[in-house]
Amino acid sequence: MTRVRLTVAYDGRQFAGWQLQAPGMGRTVQGCLEEALARLCGGAVRVHGAGRTDAGVHAVAQVAHVDVPEARAGLPWQRALNALLPDDVSVVDASVVPPDFHARFSASGKIYQYTLWTRPGSILPWRRPYVWDVGRFSPLDVAAMDACAALFAGYHDFAAFQNAGSSVKTTTRLVHGVSRLPRTNPDEMVWRFHAEGFLKQMVRNLMGALVAVGSGKVSPEDIRSVLTLGQRRLAPRTAPAGGLCLIAVEYGNDGREHKRHLLRQPGADQD
Questions:
Q1: Is 67 annotated as catalytic?
Q2: Segment-wise mean pLDDT, segments of 10 residues, the chain, 271 residues
Q3: In 3D, which of 114, 113, 109, 130 has the Cα closest to residue 50?
Q4: What pTM, to 2 d.p., does this model score?
Q5: Kindly report the CA angle at 87 between 82 and 90, in degrees rounded to 5?
Q6: Cis peptide before 23, with omega less than 30 degrees from 0?
Q7: Residue 186: Cβ-neighbour burial (10 angstroms; 0-12, 13-18, 19+)
Q8: Which of 48, 75, 244, 257 is the Cys-Cys partner for 61 at CB 3.0 to 4.6 Å?
Q9: Could you tell me if 107 and 251 are in contact, meaning their C-beta atoms sit under 8 angstroms apart?
Q10: What is the distance between the alpha carbons of residues 193 and 110, in angstroms, rounded to a whole number?
Q11: Widest CA span in the chain
């Protein structure tokens, strides 16, 4: 068998997430890829992803790997898969990798971006699926949000920011940084979340906390207390899925995904 690494982009609106679901529970990105690969490989194969994005979450650089028969190793995988995949999934890169590469266990970090729509009173219809409309809270207190974001950097127990439905050995994670990007669109505010890994819906919960601080509902010190106490019921609500996009998966010194996809998001305005 030959191991092939795939970098995949998808619009999450019509998916029940990345991971395969029980029959009748909705289509998944993993399922679409495995169906296309089965046709190319002449039999069932298993695709392993770097992580499990939730229903409605988008990606421009999800990474996966698959073991294919040696006889099919020379196929032009990107072109062949894209000819079979639905319009809301695309393979943006494909390459043969060593057999010890693992999309999930070899990963050293992930980067997500979350986009807020901040203009009060109206929203561009074509941006609605890819942002969280927080215009009713405008103007947001960005200084307070920045102060809150700084609390999340470093090693912390993020139990208060993990939603139910996941079993993990530890809820401690190393967050490299949570930062507000310079505005390129006056109606949108983009936040970047960079960590070695995230808990279930952790990014959306951190974003919910930042918006709660920016809108004056809670203070950064309130969020510090929530982080310390570790109780999910004390934290602000989870941000909607549509504003979240997986931007990069990092592998040691391999920064290809980081450099190539960092500023791209599905549905973004193109000048």
A1: no
A2: 96 94 88 97 95 95 96 93 97 96 96 97 95 94 98 96 84 96 94 96 97 97 96 95 97 54 37 23
A3: 109
A4: 0.90
A5: 40
A6: no
A7: exposed
A8: 257
A9: yes
A10: 8
A11: 61
**pLDDT for the residue 258:** 40
165: its two tokens: 């439905």
Rounded Cα gap, residues 112 and 132, in angstroms: 15
Angle of CA points 157, 161, 165, to nearest 5°: 105
H helix or E strand, kind and range, residue 38 = helix 29-41
The one-letter amino acid at 17: G
Catalytic entry in 11, 54, 133, 187? 54
Q: Are the C-beta atoms of 194 and 154 separated by less than 8 Å?
A: no
Which H/E stretch holds residue 175? strand 172-180
Residues 16, 31, 126, CA angle at the centre, nearest 5°?
45
With contact defined as beta carbons under 8 Å apart, do 191 and 208 qualify? no
Q: Please, which residues have CB within 8 angstroms of residue 225's CB and are 6 or more apart in sequence?
A: 234
Taking the CB of residue 157, how many other CB atoms lie within 10 A of it?
15
Q: How far is CA 107 from CA 41, 179, 250, in A?
A: 26, 21, 6
CA dist list (Å): 154 to 112, 176, 181: 17, 6, 19
pLDDT (tens digit per residue) in 56-93: 999 999 999 999 999 998 899 999 999 999 999 999 99
